[in-house]
Every structure is written in C-alpha cells, then in structure tokens.
Design brief:
Number of strands: 8
Strand order of the largest sheet: 1-4-3-2
Oligomer: single chain
Low-confidence stretches: none
Radius of gyration: 15 Å
Number of helices: 2
Length: 131
C-alpha cells in the first residue's frame, strides 16, 4: 500500500546515526543521501532514505522546526530482529518507549519493541509470527 514515506529531523546528524544503527537489524540500510540543491530557500537541506536492496522507502528529511511526533512500525522477520532493533537503538542513546515483548491486546503473536528517535517519534519494530 505504501511506496515510501518520510519523517523530519531537527538534528539530522543524530537522527541519521540512530537510523544507521537500528535499520540494519531489520535488513535495511541507507540507500540514498542527498541535499536539496533544487530548493532555493534551503539548498543545503539534507535527506536520506532507508530500505531493502536499493529501494528508498523511509526518508529522513532535515527540518528547521519540530513537527508533531509520528508513530511508525517496521516489519521484523523474527523476534530476534525486534530485540536487536531495540538494543541497537538503546546503544545510540535512544529513549526506551516499550521493551520488546508480546502485546496480546493486538493479537497473541504480536511482538513489538518501541523507541523514541531523536525527534520524539515512536519507532517500533514488530514481528507477527509466534515465538
């Protein structure tokens, strides 16, 4: 359903370090990084995108002002990936927003781990397969 989406970062360097650390746990990497040279109002604005292979799916765009925090859940293939995602985020100094575990109120096999990225976005890794 979604081809790509973006979020905004007031501290681009810190946000990029966070996603550079957590995305490999899910099999994704930074596949593109560029500046908005076409934008006459901010030609040095930075942005990058993460995804599988060479597909840019999740964009981080530098912003001058913070925006309303968002929630995004990234699909994990295993509970071990959720655990690694969460652990790597904590290692970058991210705030824990819910340790990895079963959230049976969604469904019996829902296993998620939650972090707050540097801009306060609720970032989750989730696996839907039983233990």
């Amino acid at each position: 359903m979604i081809d790509h989406l973006s979020t905004y970062a007031t501290d681009y360097a810190a946000t990029k370090r966070f996603y550079d650390a957590v995305m490999p746990a899910l099999g994704h990497r930074c596949v593109m990084e560029l500046t908005a040279s076409w934008n006459p109002e901010w030609p040095t604005q930075r942005m990058c995108a993460y995804g599988p292979g060479d597909k840019p799916i999740y964009w981080i765009i530098e912003a001058r002002a913070s925006s309303t925090p968002r929630h995004i859940a990234f699909a994990a293939q295993s509970r071990a990936e959720v655990d690694a995602f969460h652990r790597r985020g904590l290692e970058t100094g991210a705030e824990d927003h819910g340790a990895p575990g079963v959230r049976a109120h969604y469904h019996p096999a829902y296993y998620g781990g939650f972090l707050l990225d540097p801009d306060g976005n609720n970032v989750e890794a989730v696996c839907h397969t039983p233990g």
